[in-house]
Amino acid sequence: WGIVFLTGAWTTLSEIGARSWLFLILSGLATGASWICYFKALALGEVSKVAAIDKSSIVLSVLFSMALFAAERELWWLKLIFLAMIAAGTFLMTDIRRGERSGNFVWLLFAVLSAVFAALTSVLAKIGMENVDSNAATAIRTCVVLIAAWLVVIFRKEAALVRELHRKEVLFLLLSGVATGAS
Predict the structure, then answer these.
(1) Disulfide-capable partner of 124 in 27, 78, 139, 173 (CB 3.0 to 4.6 Å)?
(2) 148 C-beta neighbours (distance < 10 Å), count
(3) d(CA 76, CA 70)
(4) Is 153 exposed, middle or buried (0-12, 13-18, 19+ CB in 10 A)?
């Protein structure tokens, strides 16, 4: 929101149409769902595997955008070739083998859901950002994510656990938040 006010984008907030609000809110909800699934996958699986699956959202984002936006269909065959290469590389990076030690692939379900929601985030944001300043759109989406995340914490009755966090955990969570904001 600091950037929104510094750039003067706050003056455009009243001009945002209902359709843009709807899709920015949906994009924020998709972002929140992606993060929730991502962190659940991280809790259950290896970082390298979870991150690789999550980043496969690139493949899904391009496929969704090709389906929804005519301009994205240009050189569709070339895009499909490179998407197949990305998907193959992602599969090889995850090193998923039949009969993995624990046999627990729940992390994979959450990692795939994270990728799907991340892909939806991009497409929904693209639709919602029509005639909307990108900084204002990001601020709106971030508020939705913040509200959704705290609602999950409250719904799961885990708000009291926040007080139990150690300084080091808080530091790393704050640094993660700064890195996310910067990205």
Answers:
(1) 27
(2) 19
(3) 10
(4) middle
Residue 181 and residue 6: Cα distance in Å, rounded?
Answer: 16
Q: Are 114 and 53 in contact (CB under 8 A)?
A: yes
- Taking the C-alpha atoms of residue 164 and residue 67, their distance in angstroms, rounded to an integer, is 46
Give 111-121 pLDDT, tens digit per residue: 999 999 999 99
Question: 43 and 163 in contact (C-beta within 8 Å)?
Answer: no
Distance between CA 28 and CA 125 in Å, rounded?
Answer: 8
pTM, rounded to two decimals:
0.80
Give the span between the Cα atoms of 35 and 180, in whole angstroms. Answer: 11
Q: Which residues contact 9 (CB under 8 A, 6 or more apart)?
A: 3, 133, 135, 136
Which pLDDT belongs to residue 158?
87
Count of CA atoms in the C-beta half-sphere (13 A) of 133: 18
DSSP-based three-state secondary structure for 146: helix
